[in-house]
Amino acid sequence: VPSDAHEEVLEDIIIRPMELKDCGPCFYLGERIFVTGSLYRTWDEWEPVSLLSGCPEYCFVAEAKEDGSIVGFVLGSVFHQKKLTTGYVDWVLVDPKWQRNGIGTLLVERAFRTMQENEDRPLDVLMADTPADNTPAIDFFMEHLNFTDRIPHVYLMRFRDRDSLHEDAGEEKQRKQKKHRKEKPDPVQIRPAMVDDLYTIYQLGESSFRYHANLARTWDEAEVMDMFSSNSEYCLVATIDGEIAGFCMGTTVDKRKRDRPYGYLVWLAVDDRFGRQ
């Protein structure tokens, strides 16, 4: 609960629905704060635009009454699955100069309250994620918003300028292996995903991610369709004897300060029956 001093600050703030004019200020605020790690790699101009386009009712900004500047925002969405409805805080941020005044709490609570009011099915769970070393954000969600379960999640990176070293080592290993065995045709074939593969991909993801709560809560049919429709060139399947044995779905993230985009492997799964092939 905000203190009296915080209440005075909140009197200078308006929490309102996000509008198209706010996309620029929100992006630049995020660009200024998300400067390292997984937040930096996945934050781009498309994030506020796509969430406002797809889930406008769950996007809110904190606006300073004095000059109309945007000092914070929350971007949310809702995932509908067969047995679970999840409210998700995709992004929340408050300008450091305005932090510790209850603005972030008001933004998130406004988004969650709207989710509860708008959805035909009641929310089963509320979810947010942040890097494991972002202690202030973790404390914010657990102390002020009553989040409880902490599920570890790891982001991995491989830099392009090191790829040649990996390729050289891999080729040398293959040459040594060929000396000790006869050549056999590779049973695994990699090809682009096709529209008639999508349901099989969805089912394989359902069976693969069901034991990982943070993955299961964001994997649904809409995710498969969105990835395929927007990034079909980065959606691949692995087949063995014509049967889909695995898949990957990726995208790229452009950064203003980098010459090349980040390649982001969003989803990867292999059917247990074909493991270690």
From TrEMBL:
Q: Which residues form the N-acetyltransferase domain?
A: 13-162, 188-277
Name one molecular function that GO assigns to this entry: acyltransferase activity, transferring groups other than amino-acyl groups
Give the protein name, as stated in the record.
N-acetyltransferase domain-containing protein
Lineage at the top is: Eukaryota, Discoba, Euglenozoa, Euglenida, Spirocuta
- InterPro entries registered for this protein in UniProt: Acyl_CoA_acyltransferase, GNAT_dom
| One Pfam short name | Acetyltransf_1
Q: Where is this region: Disordered?
A: 167-187
Please name the PANTHER family in this protein's record. N-ACETYLTRANSFERASE (PTHR43072)
